[in-house]
# Entry
Amino acid sequence: MRTAAASLCLLSLAGPALSATYFLKDNIVGADFYKAFNFEAIADPTHGRVNYVDAATAISQNLTFAHEDTFILRADYKTTLDPNGPGRNSARIRTNKGEIDIVEGVNDQGPNAVTLHTSPGCTMPAERPETGTPTLLDCDTSVNGNAGCGVHMPGSVSYGPAFNNNGGGWYVVERTNDYIKVWFWARNDRTTPLEVKFGLPVVTTSLWVRNRKTASNLCS
# Structure
């Protein structure tokens, strides 16, 4: 995916997990991303052919910029690479407040894979309530080439060019002590909850009808 426009709303849980009502805690929009995330100019820990650059380089090469409520983060897609040389310049960012990866893929290949990468001992049951398609079940980073345990979102518009051409969409992550759930709604999906579509400060996930594009992960 060459470009991505993003905003991030962090929600805090009110009451027991079963009530699933959340109130807005942090709203990260536009240039706020530069304060909330660190750029990591490191070797790719998954051994991909990529050259991660620091913030100053990313800005100077137009790999990232912010304007009003828009934040762009992308790889260099203009340079013709030497087949024997280093990988493409790109930006890798890490949040200052903990991390869950919700978008994962290779180049332009969809659909999106919601994936956990953990220490040893976390595995997924083969059967669990979700509408996505499970991949591997062992989340351990030291096995299966650090592929993790993933769930492919159904449909073709959750990642890559199809995602961009469709106007993007909304991802929602719910994390409790018992589970992690991820929902996706395409930009033109009429089933998108109003609190998601309009960025309302309170959401109640228990009221959502299970969307046709969901992924659930729980270590066993």
